[in-house]
Amino acid sequence: MQHATPTASPDFDFGRPPFDLLTADQRAALAGALDVALYPHEAVILCREEPTDSLFVVLRGSVQERRGGEVAAVHGPGDRFGLQALYGGACGYVTGARRFVAAEDCVCHLIPRAALEALAAENPAFGTAILGDFAQRMRDLAAERSNREMAALTMARIRQAYLHPPLFVEAGASLRDAAEAMRQNRASSVLVHGEDGRTGILTGTDLRDLVVLDGRPVTDPVGPLARYGLLTLDRDDLLFNALVLMTKHAVRRVVVTENGAIAGLLGQSDLLAVLSNHSQVIGVQVEHATNPDDLRRASRSIVELIRTLHATGVKVSFIADLVTELNRRIFRKLFELLAPPELLANSCLIVMGSEGRGEQLLKTDQDNGLILRDGFDCPDLPRIAAEFTRHLVAFGYPPCPGNIMLSNPEWTRPLAGYKDAIFSWIHRPDEAAQMNLAIFYDAAPVAGDATLLQDAKDYLLSRLQDNQMFFTQFARPTLSFDTPGGLFAALFERRRGEPVDIKKAGIFPIVHGVRALALEKHRAETNTVERIQVLAELGALDRKMAGDLVEAFTILSTIRLKARVDLPQDAEGAGEGAELAIDNLVHPDRLGKLDHDQFKDCLALVKSFKELIAHHFRLNH
Known about the structure:
By secondary structure, the protein is of the alpha+beta class. It is 50% helix and 15% strand. The protein starts with a strand and ends in a 5-residue tail after the last helix.
């Protein structure tokens, strides 16, 4: 950055947003802290090599924002720039060769970081507004991410798809023999060893046409009837090439080779499953499961489904909806397999936490419970509950450290018992009670009689009072964990090799802060995004902040998912404990440029939101 020439301080224009939100005393404080600098024509005001400690506001002249050799934007009198460099560090702000250059002799006000921080803390509305076009910047960056991911889709390899094992018959085998081989192996085609050393193929459609339409005897040999000159691709070839080949030749399968040998057959449906998803296949597996082992296999398939959807650029909100539905089907089916009909009719299986909110992307801790109809007794319930928990562990859902599971009698009790617990959580709150209330507030029904949960939720909301002290205590965990980034972005540079717990630093403050606001308004929604939208409609949350929170929550969830699915396969085999230990950790120095910028921007917004929650619930008093 070129050194500026100091000048006398002209009056600052407090009539421009967001500075018009400042009180008279706050304006006086800002006026006293301002610096003013003169930049000659073509002076580089801000560049990637140097950080800044001030926000720039153009007073006279104009400033060009240049990316490479092109002018990306022009900032005139009253416009401000350098906010992301101030909050996110120079490396996080200027992408490539981005510079701010004086297009003519210009004068800028410089607002010191300390003054800006003090005003943002004292005036939450100003603190929110000063973030400027955060949401739009997030949308632009997300669009860039989407374009890159969709481009990566075209680079998917055949080995990512399911290959049908090759099924061979000799040329002298009869049509009946070929049909029998297909039936026994549940195959739709056979490969034929031709007498001249070539390999041919005979499909189920070929059999139908030859025998039914052409009247061929089923004793005819397959050798002369097979089709030779197979369409082949290597296992490391692009899926896109396979799609083109199938389309060009109007076929539904190609032969896949590896090291010159036939490795299997790629079917059109299997190819499309990779390019879309195979959720319907998993759903069918769940519905047709006759024992827990069937469910375990279906549950294990969800991990690969997540990888496939993420790799093909599917939005994280869609993945969460899909995974939530599949998880709940698995839980419902497991409970139906274990519970007798009378228990199903007189209970409600519930899921809580991220599963209850419909936001679980990965197999995190179990958070479930059972509400029994008052007066109903099931002598075998302890065994059934223990079996349910044990099977979920086998499916890959670790036990809850807080023991919030069916196997814990405190979470498997009559409706009246839940109401007593809710009363205690509200009127005799301690740390454990606040946690239990928050978890139960997110509960959703999975199996059995859903009216039992609705009755308990209605009771919860009816017992809430306009007690400021209660809501203050309930909201306090929003501030439990430090949030690097934003005004503390230097942490990224000071601790460059240290990971950040993305859940504690970014996701949890949004989830719990929004949950506290929703509970205060006695709202019944459970999903975080839905709560944000309703709060905005009620005027309990500024619409701009609401939009920014949705953007940030989505991006943080995407980065968290990406950090998890990008782990090497052997890391997942390290055991459940190892998997959990790295589940929420993100290494900022390992993120790509786009993710790095988004991560810091999102954490800056989380910091601002935490200040809003602290002010609203008087957490600093």
